[in-house]
Structures are given as structure tokens and as C-alpha cells.
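Provenance and format

Records in this collection were gathered into a single text stream. Each protein contributes a sequence line and a C-alpha cell line. The two records reproduced below are adjacent in the stream.
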Amino acid sequence: MVLGRIPSTRDLRRIATRARALSSSAATSIHGIHVFHCPDAVGIVAKLSECIASRGGNIHSVDVFVPESNQVFYSRSEFTFDPVCWPRDAMEAEFRKLSKFFNAEASVLRVPALDPKHKIAVLASKQDHCLVDLLHRWQEGRLSVDINCVISNHNRGPDTHIIRLLERHGIPYHFLPTTSGNKREQEILGLVDDTDFLVLARYMQIMSGRFLESYGKDIINIHHGLLPSFKGGNPSKQAYNAGVKLIGATSHFVTEGLDAGPIIEQMVERVSHRDNLRSFVLKSENLEKQCLAQAIKSYCELRVLPFESNKTVVF
């Protein structure tokens, strides 16, 4: 069509046909995520882009990280594609070819509309704030997980808010009282066998190396940011009495080292002389809830990759 000329009927039909085709393509497009970790080399981004674009996919974002200290390549791509033109199994096969070509350590594909949600179990002790927050976020659809069960070493009565919520959604609650000589780990392993990862929502027990090895999958933990200065009982009161001005929370992967696993998420907030002990504790608990939920969300969206021996890349 020439600029300045009144479009003919034929021009208008061609424009309408193109618009319908684009609209149809957009309507059938779904969202995919791909993460890649391999030795650094020239042309990795180009090959990844070509792989997606050659099958009609449209890249929305690409995050890349190549550390100065080690020539390795990390990327996370988000794209849309038509599953009719590019079936899920064909897509997996093509990314697998790229993985072999670049000798990749990890190549993970996720299509949220087609793939099952991550199956998790939540472990908690007496404190409810993180457990309640996760259950409500899950109920509202803000966490892309299926909760297989909740396990606790604290007995909650049948008429408590948590038990009623779990019963309403058909989520089993397992009360496994622990002692210093019996952490009930073998029973926990039997309950969590069919999960993709575990969440410790203020579970105040240390997991043994044998448990971690037997489970063999990721475990996400949350703790307050008052360590290591304020250890032992009632750390919030200790910190409050010491007059600290900054509090925080840390979510990390569980390792044999106590609270020493690779960090996924951290959050901080200022406190002041205007805070009393109650407001101090509430601020600390709110940080723990937000920090744990964000760590789970990032993990499910393939934003968390292992880096070196005890770090993470979080896109």
C-alpha cells in the first residue's frame, strides 16, 4: 500500500487477514521458561535465540550472567510459542541438542500451562506465621505449588484455624513429636517421597546429613536475620534489648551446616526506639513470611541456579 493513497478493498482485506492471523497466533501462544548453564563460549545466546525463533517462538526476556572469576555461562529466557507448531516434546528435544552441543551442566525447560505444579511438603514447628502465610498464598493461587502435606512436631488441636483450612482443602496434617534422640526422619522421608522439594516454615529441627542424602532434592529454609549475634532462646527479645536498628530474614537451601546453605533471598527493615517488643517481633515475622514466599516463587519460576560451591545466581 502506497503512503497517502486511499486503501483499496483488496488492501483492507489483506490487512484484516493479517490482523486475524496475528490475533489467532496470540490467542494460542503460551508461556515457556528455559534456563541454561554451560561453559562460556561465543554464540550461546544466538543459538538459543535461533532455536526459539526458528519455531515461531517470541522471546520476551533473556537474563545472562558470566562471572569474572569463572568462565561459565548462565541464562534464563522467557518466551511465548504456539504448542501446535512446537509441541512440548519436540521443544525438549531441541533444547537437549543445544545442551549436548555446548556441554551444558544444566538445561531446564518449564511450560507452566502444560507442566504439573511443583509438589511440596511443608514442615513447621510451633510458630504459625510462615505456615499460615504459605497456605493463604497457595489458596489464593499466588504460589505455583501443590501442597502434599504439612508435617509438624507440634500438635495443633482439631478446631484451630490451620487444621480447619487444611481439612477444607484435603491436605493431610501429620503430627510427629520429636526428641533429641529421635527426629522421626525415616517417617518424614516416607511422607515426602513424592515431592519435588521441601519447605521448612520455621521447623525448629536440624536435618541430619543422612536425611539430606536420602531425600536427595532441594529443601528451602527460612530464619530470622538476628543470627549469629543473638543465639538461643527468644532472639527477638535479645535483639530488642540490645537496641538493634536493622532486622532481617534469610531464605536459603538446607545443607549439613547449620543455616549455612546457599542464600536464595534476603530482606531487611529498619527498627527504632519507637518500636516496642511486640511491633519488633511483628516486623521480624512479616519479613520471614515475605522472604520465604519470594524464595519459593523464585525457585518455581526457575530463577535460582547454583553458583560455585555455596552461592546462587538469582535472576
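Adjacent record:
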Amino acid sequence: MASFSSSKLVVLLLICVMVSVFGVAIGGKFNEEFEITWGDGRAKILNNGDLLTLSLDKISGSGFQSKNEYLFGKIDMQLKLVPGNSAGTVTAYYLSSQGSTHDEIDFEFLGNLSGDPYTLHTNVFSQGKGNREQQFHLWFDPTADFHTYSITWNPQRIIFYVDGTPIREYKNAESVGVSYPKNQPMRIYSSLWNADDWATRGGLVKTDWSQAPFSASYRNFNANACIPKTPSSSSCSSNSATSTSNSWLNEELDNTSQERLKWVQKNYMVYNYCTDTKRFPQGFPADCAQNN
């Protein structure tokens, strides 16, 4: 059982109070809310800030990050993934803090041979420790049109959504000694890069550079979230003009959503760390009791 001091509890309660008072909603313009961080011109902000594209060729991929950091919230982004033969490519879209003890919440889209499904890889890191992978195939072609990929992050749970359908819920398991991301503000990051040493069929299928440049597109970003007043702060900025409902702070899955989650996991889950007996022959991680 992990110890949880009264001082830490007070800090967490203060965070929750500040979030409930100072949540802000931010929508849209990529040129206002994001900055391109690498790629030497391969990433582009278009249509007056309404569209962002990343591209990958044999020389380099590309990426961007949010200007703001967030401490809990509901993050939405629409993506249209690399079409055709995308084997070897990875489109990553995630929240992360910095440093060796960073927290992170991941969507990663692992490319495929034409006609095969994308693999949607999810993971949760806390205090630098991840290894909480679940993977899914999707029930639609994610390259044909834009689809909404969302993360709800609050002190009790993290919920991954695709077009409003929950695909994964990761619950706070501090009660059994497992750390949970709750103290470190995180930025949004995204990148398109070559990972053909592992991304497609464990690295057996390599990137076909004759198909390059590969491209992914983004639109309709929205963050209903807490923005800390200063970097690494646990209190949030007040912005009365954009204050909005903070229902995400206590969001949980109702019965209908629980049934939709079970449907996805029964029909489309292709890997779950909490059922991998070869990886964990001595027993599953402690958080699996609450997250399986």
C-alpha cells in the first residue's frame, strides 16, 4: 500500500478546487494555440489556422506542440491519417510533461500495408514509468476522413475516446501503490515519423519510400481544461471570457458508455498488457485489478 501523506492530499484537493474554478475552453486556430517544433518546413499551418498537416519523407518527419500546458481536462482533435501503404510510419498524438519522471498519455497510430487495418496504440506513463499498453483496430478507415480522438484526464481516471466512443478507461490505482499522473502539467504533442524497426508487424514490414511523402492532417482542436498560471504550477489561470462547464473534472462512464467500451474491447482490442501472461509470468501489475 502506498503511503499518501495529508499534505499531498491537501495539494490534490487544492488542485481540484482551482481546476473547478478556472477551467478554460480553447478552440481551434493552430497558429494561435500550437507551434511547429521540427521538420524543416514539412509541417504546415493552412487555411487561416484551421488546418495543420505533417509530412514525412526519407530525410525527416515533422512535429508540433501546444503553446499551453494543461493540468487535467478534456482534449479533442480531429485527425486524418496517412493513406495507402503507410507501413513503418507512426503518427503520434499525446500529452506529456518533461524529464526522466515525466507523465504521458498516448495515442499512437501504427501504419499498415494497404488494405490492412491501422493499429491504435495507447499508453499511460506516470513518474517516467509506462508499460501500460492497450492496442486496438478501428471500425472505420481512419485515412478516408477526419475522426475525433479525445482524452479526458481528471484526478480519478483517464478515458480515451474515438468519435465519442470510449475505447479505454485507466483508473487511478494509487490505493494499491501505483503512481498516477496528477501533479505535472502536460503539453499536447504530435509527430509523424519513421519507426519501421518496430511499427508494422514488429518491424518485419519496412517503409516503402517510393510512397513518400506521407502526410497526416489535423483540424478542430478543442481543449476544455485547466491551464496553470505558470510553468509547473498547480493553480490555473482565470479567463472569464472562456470559462465553461468543467464536467470533465468528475467525468465517469455511465452504463451506456460502459457497454460501448465493452463492445470495443471485445471486438477491436488486439493487445492488453493486463492479459499478457508471457510478459508477466509472475503476475499482472497491481493496477490491472482496477483496469481490466
